[in-house]
Each structure stands twice: as C-alpha cells, then as structure tokens.
Specification:
- The chain has helices at residues 3-9, 13-77, 82-112, 123-141, 148-178.
- By secondary structure, it is mostly helical.
- The model has no long low-confidence stretch (mean pLDDT 83).
Length: 179
C-alpha cells in the first residue's frame, strides 16, 4: 500500500468531527434539557412548599395586622375623648399585639423553613413591632396629651410600611423560587 492509499484510507480529525457532530449535539441537548427539567421541578416544588407552608401563614398574619392598623387609624380620627378613647386605644393595642405575635410566629416559621431563603425573617419585623408597641403605650400612658392622635397615626403608618416591606420580601422569595 502506498502512502497516498494510506492517507486516503484514514480519516482526518476534521472528518471525525464532521462525522460525530450530528450525533453529539442531540445527545448533549438531551442531557441539558433533562438538567433543566430537574431544576424546574425542584424549583416548582420549593415554590409550592413555600406558598403553602410559609406564605399562607404570613399573608393571613399581615391581613390581621392591616386590620389592626386600620383600627388604629379609625381611633386616631375618631372624635372620642377621655375614657372612651382610652378603651379604644387599649382595644387597638390588643389587636396589634395579637396580630404582631401571629406575624412573628409566621416569620419564625419562615426562618425554620428549608423553603425560605435566609434566616432573618423575624428580624425584618421585630424592631418596628417594638417601636409600635412603645408608641401605643405612650398614647395610653398620657391620656391628656394633645399629640396622642398623631402618635396613633404615625404608628399606623409605621405598621403599614412594615407590611409592605414584608410583602415585598415574600414576593422576592417567590421570584427566587421561580429562577
């Protein structure tokens, strides 16, 4: 066999590439799509678990807290004075404490959950919650303070701001689960 016959009988590296390319591309696409499907299933499961276990509790708690903030606003704008106003503020205080504790428990559940990123969920509400309770106690302790209604309005605004912040955090978590 001559050199020319040997050279024509063997394939060059480029010919190997051209021969294998139609076979390699579909195989690699298959494996990439399988990896993508696994990731999507895992993210969907994480999203479902977050929504059913954590988000529903947080949303319920936020609704209670929003109702308490609305009650605070109503009391701040009411024309009552004296003992009647004090009773209303005490009622608001109980509503805020109940809803706040409920939200703290829901956020603690998020901290412990494997489906929620980070472990600082409780921290996003603790400081504001303490400030709100302090403000309400200040309004209760000074029955003749002319700024009493302003304090209640500011407290309601503070609660509403924190509600928006917690909701944004939940939405960000959902977006992260969908990635």
């Amino acid at each position: 066999m001559t050199e020319q016959e040997v050279a024509s009988a063997t394939l060059s590296w480029w010919q190997y590439v051209l021969f294998l390319a139609p076979h390699i591309v579909p195989i690699s696409l298959y494996f990439l799509s399988r990896q993508s499907q696994k990731r999507d299933r895992r993210n969907n499961a994480k999203l479902h678990q977050f929504q059913s276990g954590v988000q529903s509790e947080i949303d319920h708690s936020l609704a209670s807290l929003k109702a308490a903030a609305s009650k605070l606003k109503d009391v701040a704008f009411a024309s009552r004075t004296g003992a009647s106003l004090t009773r209303d503020i005490e009622s608001c205080n109980e509503a805020v404490v109940s809803a706040g504790d409920q939200l703290m428990e829901a956020l603690a559940t998020a901290d412990e959950s494997a489906f929620a990123d980070g472990n600082d969920w409780v921290q996003i509400f603790t400081d504001t919650y303490d400030q709100c309770l302090t403000s309400i106690q200040k309004a209760l302790s000074s029955p003749h303070d002319p700024k009493r209604r302003e304090i209640l309005q500011e407290t309601a605004k503070m609660i509403e701001t924190r509600i928006r912040f917690v909701r944004a955090r939940v939405e960000n978590q959902i977006m992260d689960c969908m990635k």
